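Record format v2
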Amino acid sequence: MAATHLPPTEVIINDAPDAPIARPRVLMVGTAFTVAAVLMGFATLIGIYLTERADSIASGTAWIPDDVVIPLNQPNVMLFALLASSVTIQWAVDAARRDDRQHAYLALGITLVFGLGVINMGAYLYTVMGLDMAVDSVTPVLIYTITAAHLALLAGAMVFTGLMAFRALGGQYTSRQYDGLSAAALFWHAQVVVFVVIWYAIYITK
Amino acid sequence: MAITETSTTTEALTASTAPAPAGYIEPTGLGAVLGSGDHKTIGRLYIGFACAFGIVAFVLMAISSLQGIGDGGSVVGLTSAFAVFTLGQLSIVLLFAVPLLVGLATAIVPLQVGANTVAFPRAAAGAFWTWLVSAAALLCAYAIDGAIGSGGNTESQQLALLALIGLAVALIVASVCVVTTVVALRTDGMALDRVPFFSWSMLVAGGLWAMTLGVFVANALLVLIAVKYGTANRFAVASSQWPQLAWLVAPVAVFTFAIPVLGIVADAVSNFSGVRQPRRGFVLFAIAAFGALSFGAYLQPFFNEGAWHQWIVVGQSALLVLPLLMVLGGLAAAMKAGKPKLASPPILGLVALLLLVLAALLAIPFGIQSLQLAAPADSLVATNEALREAASSTPPYLWGLLGLVAGAIAIAGAAGVYLWAPKLVGRRLGDGLGKLLVLVLGAGALLVSLPLLLVGLSARFDGIADAADALFGAGAAGAAILAVGSFLVIVPMLIGRLDVIRGGRIDDADAWGTGQTLEWLADSPPATGNFATLDPVVSSEPLLDLATAGDAA
């Protein structure tokens, strides 16, 4: 057959079968196990917090000193920001699934802004709480350890999401393969769940 | 085309190994070690360093045991005795047992499931180097008065705690890489119930290790923050630091680290029996059940006094024996059905399994309060400050149990190294030395554990306290023998590897001639990429399928 009788290149490419997906589910599975480890760590810290708090109250000692005021404004705003960020990151996954790249970028950007806002508000909360670490009490140690570990987890989730956002910008995630974004969303949702528990166990019940 | 339908000629087998990509230059020398993301290299590094640290850990255990003699100041003096004790206990788990099994898994699991690499190879390499640096930091911190719970230099203690967190995080990441390989990178046709026993046991263990070590990280983080910022509270007080972390080396949690022992034994025995494992699902279930029953990170006596004596914990300990007996029964059925070869891997494996059964049996009485196993006799601790300090949170009965479990892991590790040496270093190791290891490690494990378990009974039975010096001495001898055993594992491995690198003998793909699973289809040692292409497997023993097809042809 003469070369001029070959079908156009784009026809050949369009008719070619899809290449198999390289390493399906790998990132999702790895993230799921990592999330399990992280959740166990926080379950331990919060379990210790609640045990110590119950013991303290049972012995008639104030769990949080009277001169310490933990405001609810910041934790509430942090909670709503994180709940909203859960929606936006799921929006990013959905947009990637529909090959809607513009909305995927927009949703990822908003998610990261929410994350930055929560870290900023968490840092501000520390300045107004006035919990002194150098006292003969485990209360400040537990509160700072748990809340700071959550902020570190959030920072980690932001790095993960940012990395996946760059990969999405590079065109790696499409309707065929958006595993990385799903994995980042799973990690993000996990840290939101952790904060919901912290919000109730520490900020609400005090 | 299924693997059973392929030609059984040598050409067909060698064609399934990975060809080097065009233009690819295999790194050599130090670059091949330091910069490698190849799972075999990472696995070898883990095994080598874990055995080296194992020597250190068992020597520390021997010294701790010697500190039980007389007034406790006989070897390292009273001031260092507690530091040696805690470092020895932590080293057994975090520097020896878990890394040894993680190393074997990183090297072998991808081959067993027909993967070209471990999942997240750069993360796996990063985890190894993080583990190694953290291990060095832990030893350095202890060397500069940073022992946990010793009341020494605060900054050094912070380094030690940070190193512990680094060790645990690195092992979590390494476990996640292995588990993800089993879940997501299995070759076509390999359903989860067709996964080889060792890979299955690592799937169970890796998930549980990630969760258990996640809890340990939280405990260590709490102590670190307390020591660094809140020095006046009870979490930071020297006497309460070790009790917050000691659950890691106590039952039931310590059995979590022995889950892969079952996988190694099952693979070794079924391979050398030459038959398909009868009631395979039964054995897989038993391994999973052992894993589920060994989860003990929730058991933290520092925060829940008397937790060891709760009925649920005693019941959990009692049930733990059943899956071990189920595995033993399953393997007995395989040996009965086939003609088992008496090579070192199955013998080592079976000894490890029997020791684990013994450890599980001996763990049951610990929770029974009336037996008074949670503290040695008053007459012993009254005159020995070192023993009093160590036994306050970790009684000698638990030293014995840890020694028994560590011995079982060491022997199973040796079984794994001997079984898969062709894949690790390119050639089989001397079977005679392997059989010698059965005696050395078996004797060491019994000697390090039984005397200390007897000391643990001293509060209940009069007369044992009088023989305590001899019992502690015997325990020290056992630990020293285990240290020698660890040395005997790495030396032939190093010699074999160097021999192959220098162009010495290289074994066949199926070096033992008894292989059943996919690792025995890859070269010895496997090339980069392991397999180029693999046809779908149709059973859990693809190499037996291949042999059957060859016989039929």
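Chain B touches chain A through 39 residues (CB under 8 Å).
The two ends of chain B are 16 Å apart (CA to CA).
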